[in-house]
C-alpha cells in the first residue's frame, strides 16, 4: 500500500477555521503532506452524510451529529477506493510530525488520558477517543462502530444525549469488551492540564505525564474548553506555544 492510498480527513464548522484552530488544521495538513497522504477538508456539509431524521434530531447537538457523520464519510472514502483513512478533529495539534506514526492496525482510536480536579481530588481517567481514528479498507470495526452509533442515536430523544455519547463513551465501552489497537501518539489535553502548562507546571500536568508515559506527538486541545469558557482563544495560542517548546527542549 502506497502513502497516496491513505486519505486524511478533517471538518471544521463554517467560519471557525482561523486563529488557533487554523494553526491546528495547518499542522495536520502539513503532517499529511510530509507523509505523502491525501488531505481533504469540509465544513458543515459533513452533516450531509446523515439522513433528514438524524439531522433534525441532532440539530441542537452538532458534536453528536459529527461523531456519526465522520464515520459515514470515512466509509465513503474507503468505498471509493482508498486503502486507509485517518480522521483528525479540527482542534488536534500535531506538535511532533516526525514522531506521529499511524499504528499497523485495521482500526485504531486515539488514547485519552483525562486529568481533572485539584489537590486531593485530582483524578486521571484512561479511555479511548474518536478525535483520531484510523481505519483500513479491511476493517470490520468501522462499519460495526458506525452501525452501533446510529442505532444508539435513533433510540435517544433529542436533547437527552451527552456530547460524548457516540465518541469516547461508546468507543471506550466497545474497547473494554473487545480491545482495539490504540493510537497512543494522539492524546487529549484536559483544561486542568492546559492550565498547568500555562502556569509552568503543576500536579495535573505531572499526573498527565506519568499516566501518558511519553508526550503524545499530537494532542486534541478540546475546543469545548473555550466554548465552555474554561480557557480563552489567547490561552490556546499560548498552550500551542508551550507544547511546541516542550518538544524543542526534549530534543536537545
How would you characterize this protein structure?
With 252 residues, this protein is an alpha/beta fold. It has a single domain (3-250), classed as Spore Coat Polysaccharide Biosynthesis Protein SpsA, Chain A (Alpha-Beta Complex), CATH 3.90.550. The protein has 9 helices and 8 strands. It has helices at 19-34, 52-57, 62-79, 141-155, 165-177, 191-199, 203-212, 224-227, 233-250, and strands at 6-11, 38-42, 84-88, 92-94, 107-116, 123-136, 186-188, 218-220. The chain has a 5-stranded mixed beta sheet, sandwiched between helices. It has a 3-stranded mixed beta sheet with strand order 4-8-7. The longest helix has 18 residues, at 62-79. The protein starts with 5 loop residues before the first strand and ends with a helix. The model has no long low-confidence stretch (mean pLDDT 93).
Amino acid at each position: 500500500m502506497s502513502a497516496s492510498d491513505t486519505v486524511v480527513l478533517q471538518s471544521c464548522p463554517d467560519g471557525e477555521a482561523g486563529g488557533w484552530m487554523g494553526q491546528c488544521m495547518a499542522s495536520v495538513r502539513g503532517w499529511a503532506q510530509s507523509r505523502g497522504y491525501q488531505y481533504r477538508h469540509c465544513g458543515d456539509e459533513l452533516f450531509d452524510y446523515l439522513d433528514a431524521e438524524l439531522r433534525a434530531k441532532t440539530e441542537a447537538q452538532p458534536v453528536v451529529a459529527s461523531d456519526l457523520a465522520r464515520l459515514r464519510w470515512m466509509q465513503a472514502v474507503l468505498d471509493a477506493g482508498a486503502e486507509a483513512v485517518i480522521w483528525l478533529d479540527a482542534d488536534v495539534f500535531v506538535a511532533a510530525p516526525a514522531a506521529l506514526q499511524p499504528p499497523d492496525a485495521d482500526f485504531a482510536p486515539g488514547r485519552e488520558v483525562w486529568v481533572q480536579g485539584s489537590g486531593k481530588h485530582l483524578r486521571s481517567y484512561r479511555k479511548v477517543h474518536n478525535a483520531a481514528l484510523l481505519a483500513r479498507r479491511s476493517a470490520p470495526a468501522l462499519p460495526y462502530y458506525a452501525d452501533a452509533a446510529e442505532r444508539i442515536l435513533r433510540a435517544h430523544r433529542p436533547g437527552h444525549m451527552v456530547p460524548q455519547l457516540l465518541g469516547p463513551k461508546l468507543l471506550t465501552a466497545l474497547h473494554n469488551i473487545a480491545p482495539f489497537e490504540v493510537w497512543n501518539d494522539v492524546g487529549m489535553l484536559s483544561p486542568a492540564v492546559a492550565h498547568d502548562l500555562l502556569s509552568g507546571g503543576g500536579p495535573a500536568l505531572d499526573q498527565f505525564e506519568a499516566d501518558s508515559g511519553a508526550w503524545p506527538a499530537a494532542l486534541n486541545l478540546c475546543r469545548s474548553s473555550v466554548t465552555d469558557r474554561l480557557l480563552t482563544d489567547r490561552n490556546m495560542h499560548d498552550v500551542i506555544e508551550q507544547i511546541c517548546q516542550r518538544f524543542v527542549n526534549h530534543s536537545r
